[in-house]
Amino acid sequence: MAANYAPATSGVKNFFSPQNLKKDLPASIVVFLVALPLCLGIALASGAPLFAGVLTGIIGGIVVASFSGSQLSVSGPAAGLTVIVFGAITQLGAYPTFLLAILLAGVMQVILGFIKAGTIANYFPSSVIEGMLAAIGIILILKQIPHALGYDTDFEGDESFQQLHGGGNTFSTLAAALSKVSYGAVIVSALSLVVLIYWPKVKKLSVVPAALVVVVIGVVLSQLFEGTQFAIKDEHLVKIPVVSSLTEFTGLFVFPDFSQIGNQDVWVVAITIAIVASLETLLSVEAVDKIDPLKRVSPTNRELVAQGVGNMTSGLLGGLPMTAVIVRSSANVNSGARTKMSAIFHGMWLLLALLAIPTVINLIPLSCLAAILLMTGYKLAKIGLFAKMWRSGYSQFVPFVVTVLAVVFTDLLKGVALGMVVSIYFILRNNLRNPYFYRIGSHGDKKVIDINLAEEVSFLNKAAIQYTLAHLPHETNVRIDGSNCRYIDPDVLEVIHNFKHNAYTKAIIVELVNIKDKYDIPKLKELIYKPENV
């Protein structure tokens, strides 16, 4: 249960210390550059205003990170919710009505956090989480190659195999991109990759984030290419809304329609968003903890509350539903972030970009941002990870590979669900075979069989124990020892007592050692260490 109670601030209590800021500030710039096109792309694909996507990123950075106990996760509009959002806006008929659903979903998430629903994160198998990370890396590579080549039919941030708009899938988009290459975009993305790989290796240069250098190079080359055969088209540039005055800025906000509180469809959408967003958040936080260099453990119940507050704020101001997002979080980790200040700073950069320098931001080619995501994808899906999982044995490798393939060819939640099913099969299979220690000895001419039961003997062990007892040889002494047991399932106890009762028919003498007639399940508070002097 550590994931819900352990603090996530080990070694980084002073958020504003020079050591942490030295890491967090550069990382926040990288996350900002990654998040900006994703926020815009997801808003566009969802049928929502572009401002809503940026607003959601700002809230995810400043509000959610402030409440969250996770040090490295970054929240914002999620690709996994795109289909739900697009359908909900159409179904509800008006964007303000949809905002009410987001607000209600946020309230539900806060309630889920307080009732400790975040404990579900403890049951995500490691092999599935590793598979999800590798799959996201592969998806990033496959999805960003077209953008790096200058072909943008698919929106930035799409993670599903089938395209939401225009038909086609990941592979058909790749094939089309190879036949419609923009040489200007290729030059920008290729040079960006070179800088991203070699710039950090020069110690004196690494003070300046490589991603920032890449953006500067991309803007300069884009301007130089104008009027030539290498010109980068407008649709291959970032398109952030341009705000020219405070009045125009405040006019972008949309507020929920509270008159629809009795609309049944609003509540259905709210429940759907709350469940899906919570699951994606828990998966992302679990994955980020796994790649955190300091191996901190995030309090998942607190994370649900933070996400709920974020979605309530987003719904009130006109944003989109949000989750903790693995792509932005991975970029954050890979950029060397230390604390949640990186996520908060990234939200501030998004706000600054919207208010102060939108025309400059709109000069950035998507191809140089695609290069940043390609590097993030490579780091998530390294060959070494596949080798490591192979060495862990097939009970780990098979669920890992199934998760990778399922996520790549469907979407995040469906893929993880299939990986969970396969992983649970192996868990049950291993559990069924390990309910006891079996030893055969002898006493004179007679065989003596010792069966020492494990600490926990559940209903899942019933079949294995029943099979073993049914196949014990005739005319033996059997000693079933429950000295180590904390709990034995009633069904298993019934099997043991029935065996003892009928054993005389096989001339078997049964001795039960320290096996109670009834076991109570230990309460959680009994499993928490308490010092004697407290």
Automatic annotation (TrEMBL):
The keyword Oxidoreductase does not apply. Its main location: membrane. Keywords: Membrane, Transmembrane, Transmembrane helix. It is found in: Membrane. The chain crosses the membrane at residues 25-44, 50-67, 98-115, 127-145, 181-199, 206-225, 267-285, 348-377, 397-428. The keyword Transmembrane applies. Residues 21-402 form the SLC26A/SulP transporter domain. Pfam families: Sulfate_transp. It is a multi-pass membrane protein. PANTHER family: SULFATE TRANSPORTER. This is SulP family inorganic anion transporter. It comes from Paradesertivirga mongoliensis. The lineage of its organism: Bacteria, Pseudomonadati, Bacteroidota, Sphingobacteriia, Sphingobacteriales.
